[in-house]
Design brief:
The chain is mainly α. About 85% of the residues lie in helices and about 0% in strands. The chain is built from 5 helices and no strands.
């Protein structure tokens, strides 16, 4: 059952990445791989948030956590596309874009993950405090 849930969530993550990539491409016209960068930043934030808020909750079944984290977010983000696009930028002698892409992807991804962790931890703490307050009343 776990594999089925991860697979189904993976389908939705891949479709979301595809659709968002198309949408961004229609609105942002540049040589820079902006769509993949945005998608990966969203995925970094989302996984950080899920890790600290949703996955720490005792109410989330481990299968659901795996489906969301590994399935959806794992297929939504794309390290392989980032790598190929970086190589293509170097091949086209767009060295500044390539280095900027690497820098933004690595440091931006870390910052977005950190932001997801911080916001997720804060929401998780509020949720726990609310549960304790509700139980006391």
């Amino acid at each position: 059952m776990l594999y089925v849930l991860v697979g189904i969530a993976g389908i939705f993550g891949a479709l979301a990445r595809y659709d968002l990539g198309i949408w961004i491409g229609m609105h942002v016209h540049t040589i820079f791989p902006f769509a993949t960068l945005c998608i990966n930043m969203i995925g970094c934030f989302l996984l950080g948030w899920l890790t600290m808020h949703i996955f720490k909750s005792k109410n989330v079944h481990p299968y659901i956590a795996s489906a969301l984290g590994t399935g959806f977010v794992g297929s939504f983000t794309t390290f392989s596309t980032f790598s190929v696009e970086t190589v293509q930028l170097f091949q086209q002698s767009l060295y500044i874009y390539a280095v900027l892409y690497i820098f933004c992807s690595l440091f931006g991804g870390l910052m977005m993950s950190w932001a997801g962790f911080k916001i997720g931890a804060r929401l998780h703490a509020r949720s726990k405090a609310h549960q304790v307050q509700t139980q006391e009343n």
